[in-house]
Amino acid sequence: MSAPTHHVIYEHVLHDDTARLIDEFINALWLEEGLSKNTQSAYRSDLRLAALDWQRAGLRLNEVAAEDLPRLLGERMSSGQSARSIARLRSSLKRFFGWLRQQNLRTDDPTTALAAPRLPRALPYALSENEVERLLAAPDVSEPIGLRDRAMLELLYASGLRVTELIGLQFGQINLVQGVLRVTGKGNKDRLVPIGDEAIVWLSRYLREARPALLGRRESANVFVTERGDGMTRQAFWYRIKHHALQAGL
Questions:
Q1: Is residue 107 part of a domain?
Q2: Are 48 and 93 contained in the same domain?
Q3: Number of other residues whose CB lies within 10 A of the CB of residue 45
Q4: How far apart are CA 188 and CA 49, in angstroms?
């Protein structure tokens, strides 16, 4: 069976100077704080997608004004993006514009008065970054099931998708070239969700190696499938999460 076609869902290309500025910022963060690959990917994806949104409106990322920021966050909220994803975007923007000031590339910080979205009550126990890395590394990626689980965990961590959105993903929703997913939220409104470089690597490997092995000669529109060729269920996914958490000693 031929490889599935990944539909282009975001046709704009980021200006080279903007992409280069984002990369310089990520490199500076890594040198100063030693951020993990997943955290670097999350910041880069947030900033690239925000830059693309503003680019369509004729604005450069490093030149946006304070009034442009709440408008962007409001649009993301209206499209159904979770409060946690928006909070991460806000954090990415604040770090980026703070860095621009440090580098004397701006004289002001447009994020100073940017309000944080209200987050749901925290869970009794939240994983630290080290524990997240251990959980991500737990699946045995030499096996198709393990490679599928690694791709799902990486995608869940990088994107902030709801579990129902993750297990229901279909090929028409993914664009590995641009590094985004198209997800339908409240009111049947589509939103674009960045997924990050690390998640792209694992998702690509799963699609290339594990998914054909799991499907055999069967066909499915679902991105993530079981050994029987069916789509994943919430119960099956949470069972696998618990299994890997035990392996990681969590």
A1: no
A2: yes
A3: 26
A4: 21
